[in-house]
Design goal:
The complex is a heterodimer of chains A (about 110) and B (about 110).
Chain A lengths: L3 E4 L2 E4 L5 E7 L5 E7 L5 E8 L2 E5 L6 E4 L7 E4 L8 E8 L7 E2 L3 E5 L1
Chain B lengths: L2 E3 L4 E5 L4 E3 L2 E3 L5 E8 L6 E7 L7 E2 L2 E6 L4 E6 L8 E9 L4 E4 L3 E6 L1
Parallel strand pairs in B: 2-12
Antiparallel strand pairs in B: 1-4, 3-9, 5-6, 5-10, 7-8, 8-9, 10-11, 10-12
The chains are: A mainly beta (about 110), B mainly beta (about 110).
């Protein structure tokens, strides 16, 4: 059983399109995150949710909108995709900052 | 704001040698946690070791150990008897207790040479 699963694993799309990445965790964690890993491997936090409530919203363009229908799911919707959005997006969950964060396998988004 | 700095972008060592990866952080928080994560070419993020800031004793996990210097805000990772499978990106991370924010350093790419 995969603890944190993201779909799709790869996503290639044209500029201007809207796309979504789904994330689900079966660990019973209250906290979920979205991170962006750029081509230089820098992992930057985008959002965190705790029990469906937005806790952290870093300086991310409004085109990125997370949605948490329940505490096991945190989806990321991106509007009007730009070339600079190309990156690997990781979903993660944890029982809090004191514990291990479990990561999904990442979604490689390529905007052409 | 918290920052995590890894000053070594890339390192190479021979198999079986010991290697130390450095990490410093800046925070005014009192309650926090520190982590080292490994990201092999498979892209999967794997926890290597975890340290609670209120504990003075350095964490160890088999061949992996840390040197935690709280006053200096330093958290280095030592890998003993390095193996080819240790080749990966290593990320130092800071976990802030009050809002569960986890931030990462820019990573160190470690190559273990046969």
């Amino acid at each position: 059983d995969t603890a944190v699963s993201q779909t799709p694993k790869y996503l290639v799309t044209q500029m201007g399109n809207d796309k979504s990445i789904k994330c689900e965790q079966n660990l019973g964690h209250d906290t979920m995150y979205w991170y962006k890993q750029d081509s230089k491997k820098f992992l930057k936090i985008m959002f965190s949710y705790n029990n469906k409530e937005l806790i952290i919203n870093e300086t991310v363009p409004n085109r990125f909108s997370p949605k948490s229908p329940d505490k096991a799911h945190l989806n990321l919707h991106i509007n009007s995709l730009e070339l600079g959005d190309s990156a690997v997006y990781f979903c993660a969950s944890s029982g809090g900052a004191r514990t291990e964060a479990f990561f999904g396998q990442g979604t490689r988004l390529t905007v052409v | 704001a918290q920052t995590v700095t890894q000053s070594q972008p890339e390192m190479s060592v021979q198999e079986a040698e010991t290697v130390t990866l450095s990490c410093t952080y800046d925070t005014s928080e009192n309650n926090y946690y520190l982590f080292w994560y490994k990201q092999p070419p498979s892209r999967q993020m794997i926890l290597v070791i975890r340290q609670e800031a209120y504990k003075q004793q350095n964490a160890t996990e088999n061949r992996f150990s840390v040197n935690f210097q709280k006053a200096a805000k330093s958290f280095s990772l030592k890998i003993s008897d390095s193996q080819l499978g240790d080749t990966a990106m290593y990320f130092c991370a800071f976990g802030r207790n009050r809002d569960d924010k986890i931030i990462f350093g820019k990573g160190t790419r470690l190559h273990i040479l046969p």
